[in-house]
Write a structure and sequence with these properties.
It contains one helix and 24 strands. The protein is mainly beta. The strands form six sheets. Strands 2, 4, 5, 7, 8 and 9 form a six-stranded mixed beta sheet that branches. The termini are far apart.
Length: 289
Amino acid sequence: MKPLLILFSIAFLATSAFAQVTVAVTSPNGGEEFVDGTQETITWTAEPSEDIILNTITYSIDNGVNFSAVGNTENDDFDILWNIPWGVDSETCLIRVHSTTGALSDTDESDAWFTIEEIVVTVAITFPNGGEDFVEGTEETITWTAEPSGDIVLNTLTYSIDNGANWLAIGTTDDDDFDFVWTVPATHSEICLVKVTSEMSDRDGFDQSDAVFAILPYAEVTSPNGGEEYEISELATITWGFTGTAVSSVVYYSINSGIDWTEIGTTQDDDFNIDWRVHYELSDECRAG
């Protein structure tokens, strides 16, 4: 009977040494929805767990045609934190885990596809978006849209007076506050742009005016400026101020509150006054401009 006992012991040891390895991916295992640039934990089981020495984890975004490395774990460390790559957008993703004891191994994949969605911050400036004429010192409201609007945490506004070669600060707004009252600076240019950069917690997007707009100098009539009374043929002096560098100034008058205008004359350079012989028209709605 002793030889039979010896043979039984040898057979038992051999069977244990070459036990089959079984791997099962538990997450993601199909149907999950992940976002690019985030972190997710991959989990699996492997038996016999006490004999596993190495686990190799890979992922596919093309239904298993190609796999890329996620990382490795040792022994019975059956989870790994995965940094999902940026810019991935796929509905046919899979995880594969390969576990080995050194002598034996097994591989398992997600039972079904999961999704990685690329989230893109989309910004669109609505005003000023090209062709506008602003006057220095006035207030203009910059407006824009940004998606996904509920995830925006910060909007940064800048402007350029050299068609985008350089950018200067305007200000910031928080969250989905997508308008900003801007006091137009005393910087004169016909090639101005506005840029808005909207940020989520982990990504951003921007837009700028589709075409250039202008920031113009400020001209102000100082006399007559309201309430004056002139007689026909009286010689009146019209004066005004101008913040820019003038080449010439053309002066007009109106007798119907600005509906129609008649030219008075022209001055050159920084000559900001002109004598005007009051015409014969009678009106209490006169303006100069």
